[in-house]
Amino acid sequence: MRVHVLQHVPFEGLGSILPWLQSRNATITTTRFFAAPSLPSLHDFDVLVALGGPMSVNDENELPWLREEKRFVAEAVRSEKPVLGICLGAQLMASSLGARVYPGPNKEIGWFPVFACARGAGTFDFPDMTDAFHWHGETFDLPAGAVHLAKSEACLHQAFQIGSRAIGLQFHLETTPESADAIITHCGHELVPAKYVQNEQQLRSIPSSKYAGINGLMDDVLTYITRSGT
Predict the structure, then answer these.
(1) Backbone φ and ψ of 218, nearest 5°
(2) Is residue 230 one of the residues assigned to a domain?
(3) DSSP 78
(4) What are phi and psi of 88, to 5 degrees?
(5) Spacing of C-alpha 19 from chain mean position
(6) Residue 79 above 90 pLDDT?
(7) Containing domain of residue 58, as a range?
(8) 3-state DSSP assignment of residue 69
(9) Is 31 inside a domain boundary?
(10) Across all residues in the chain, what is the average pLDDT?
(11) Could you give the number of structural domains in the chain?
């Protein structure tokens, strides 16, 4: 398995996705947009993972590489490769397929429940409720042809699926205690009190069992998009 990762900032990495890939002897390559925004050929990888970041997909004037990244993501989705977008990565998927990305009605930072919206043949089945880690202020409209998979009280569009192998997650299932610490350290200024924003003390008091739960669901998503057949 050849996996290419789109990484937007040094402090948002693969988290629990890395040991899942390592256990399958995956070859991992990475585009680090903060260092060099060069992208591979679609023929050079089997699976694409687009990670999060504090920028907006609408920041093309300040970050011109976003235009090429969106074209690249759209091509990967349309080629029916397994594609996973997380937070900014999901917004990139939506934007690249013609959907609008814009400030949401609520910032959502911390651990809040996500609820399944759709189940059935040909789509990933989320549990009825998952307490997931969030860190976002923007949201997106669903791209044409997308299946709405999950929602939260603060944000309607939390997960979607395009075709049989592309899933966008507004929330984070890959988060580990270490990666949570990194984003709190680098983005703690965003912890402005609000209905759906937890404070640093709350974020740092989460037991390891909670991370293990979401990491297990992340494994299920990865297994689903990389499964054999259709």
Answers:
(1) -60, -40
(2) no
(3) H
(4) -55, -35
(5) 17
(6) yes
(7) 2-225
(8) helix
(9) yes
(10) 97
(11) 1
List the beta bridge partners of residue 132. Answer: 112
pLDDT above 70 (res 230): no
Q: 34 with 64: CB under 8 angstroms?
A: no
Given a contact cutoff of 8 angstroms between Cβ atoms, the answer to whether 225 and 165 are in contact is: yes
* Residue 46: inside a domain: yes
Mean pLDDT of 107-125: 92
pLDDT digits (tens, 9 = 90+) for 146-204: 999 999 999 999 999 999 999 999 999 999 999 999 999 999 999 999 999 999 999 99
| Whole-number Å distance between alpha carbons of 56 and 39 | 19
Q: What tokens appear for 165 in the block?
A: 């192998």
- Alpha-carbon dihedral 140, 219, 166, 181, rounded to 10 degrees: 30
Strands (E), 1-146: 2-7, 27-32, 47-50, 83-86, 101-116, 129-140
109 part of a folded domain: yes
> Token digits for 73?
């993501």
- Burial class from Cβ neighbours inside 10 Å (0-12, 13-18, 19+) for residue 60 reads middle
For residue 120, name the pLDDT band (cuts at 50, 70, 90). confident
CA atoms within 13 A on the CB side of 218: 29
- CATH number of the domain that residue 213 is part of: 3.40.50.880
